[in-house]
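Quiz preparation item.
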């Protein structure tokens, strides 16, 4: 789990998902106090694709930190269970943080997907 780079801050409702190995094509399990599941990401010529799935429980999220990229994404798409999620991209150096307009809850068998 340490190499997955996954960390959940329950007070801030913040997910940090920045793999420490094989960031270009990565998948792993994750655990938090209220849920567990898997996440995966792929970084290619067209950008980053990220998916967080909840297998059991519920995960409340206000923000999401993704793997560093060489450039700021020109556009981002975030969906939860296939529905668009309003968000703002905050870029600091090579880090990309997505702040959601309101807290979202990823429930059992749901996926949070990001394309950037």
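Solution:
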């Amino acid at each position: 789990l340490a190499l997955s780079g996954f960390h959940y801050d329950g007070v801030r409702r913040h997910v940090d998902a920045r793999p420490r190995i094989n960031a270009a094509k990565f998948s792993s399990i994750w655990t938090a106090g209220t849920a567990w599941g898997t996440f995966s990401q792929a970084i290619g010529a067209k950008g980053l694709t990220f998916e967080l799935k909840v297998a059991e429980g519920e995960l409340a999220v206000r923000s999401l930190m993704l793997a560093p990229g060489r450039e700021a994404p020109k556009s981002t798409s975030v969906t939860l269970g296939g529905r668009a999620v309003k968000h703002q991209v905050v870029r600091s150096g090579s880090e990309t943080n997505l702040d959601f307009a309101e807290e979202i809850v990823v429930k059992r068998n749901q996926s949070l997907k990001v394309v950037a």
